[in-house]
Amino acid sequence: MPDTHPEDLVRQLRSLAEDFADVHHLTLCTGLLDDDAVLMPLIARIRTTQTLTNKAITLTLAAGDSITATAAGRRAVEHLTGAARQGNDAGGHLLKGIPAATALHRAPRSAPRPLRMPRTSANHLALRRHFSAATGLLRDAPVMCLDAAALVTAATTGTVPAPGSVLPRLTDPQLAAFRLISQGAVRIRQREGRPPFLDTSVPAPTVTATVVALERKGLVTRDTSTSPDDGQELILTPAGQRALPALVLPATAPSRATPVPVQPRRRTR
Fold it and tell me: Are 188 and 199 a contacting pair, CB within 8 Å?
């Protein structure tokens, strides 16, 4: 198939990250539904997950020789392949939940029961186990796609860490937030008389204090061309741009552990 233009590939990778974040959130919510009403939403989640997995595979094949000829490009393919694997495995767990969901869907209630009543049948436990495994796998896929986008950008622009450059010292939460900000995944909003809060488009735990720390270090700043009510995008400063390759690109394995996420597109203090 013809190579995809790098800018188009980066744009599609960022869009795929948001789509994976959405399906993670929807799968998490589906797992909280009343068990005997979960069959149709479960089927919908399976279809969406399979579609996104196929898109990740398609984008992997679209990475041309100009990208895969570099170390950063090869790592980008590894990250994207990892995202496809996570989606495929998550879809497999959801598929395994179909028999249990079908059995619960067909079983009539003997009497009215309040929602969220504890249920301990084999079907209930199997369904919850498969949903838990699927949501755990899907939470990693968005960040893998964003990492792949950053790596493709580095592969096509020839950006490499400057030898002997002094890097800012960041904690793990600050580094995670820096990576998301570098991909345009974080906005900061503020209502009059209220503290600021963050809007993240991927399921990663980022708190306002972490972003403030990055601002103090001179790595990120707010786009003040928009009002805080509408949301100000966080962008990298020139110092942040210079530090980006060394801080982001050495991100290793796609199989790395990702902290338990907050729900995407929700307010976090």
Answer: yes
